[in-house]
Write a structure and sequence with these properties.
It is built from no helices and 9 strands. Strands 1-6-7-9 form a 4-stranded antiparallel beta sheet, with no helix packed on it. It has about 120 residues and is mostly beta strands. The termini are close together.
């Protein structure tokens, strides 16, 4: 299965409307805009990858951040409407990211467009 460009967004839930200063998000799991095969879907979705969620880090969240939410959306998926690969919320404000294949304790992973909770690629 070919690598697909995926949109990655992190949302900080704020206690106030204070402007964000220099909130940054990055991932060592992405190389030249492509995922390694371990981040691609597994046999459940008809692929041969490992379906491991990528490591994502962030720094300098806005003052007053209560928690983080993370989504991974593929606007180019052949569904005609894109594909939600990952939905995570309730990530503690003290977290500085998510480790490869894991989310922090207390975080909740929602159902993706594949119909199951957690990280999934198509």
């Amino acid at each position: 299965m070919s690598n697909r460009r995926s949109g990655l967004a992190a949302v900080a839930f704020l206690a106030s409307l204070a402007p964000a200063l220099a909130f940054e998000i990055s991932s060592q799991s992405l190389s030249d805009g492509k995922w390694a095969s371990k981040y691609i879907g597994d046999e459940i979705v008809g692929c041969s990858g490992g379906n491991v969620s990528p490591a994502i880090t962030w720094k300098d969240p806005p003052t007053g951040t209560k928690s983080f939410g993370l989504t991974l959306f593929d606007p180019d998926a052949p569904t005609g409407r894109g594909f939600w690969h990952w939905l995570v919320w309730n990530i503690p404000a003290t977290a500085t990211g998510v480790s490869e294949g894991k989310v922090p304790s207390g975080a909740i992973q929602g159902r993706t467009d594949a119909g199951r909770a957690g990280y999934i690629t198509e």
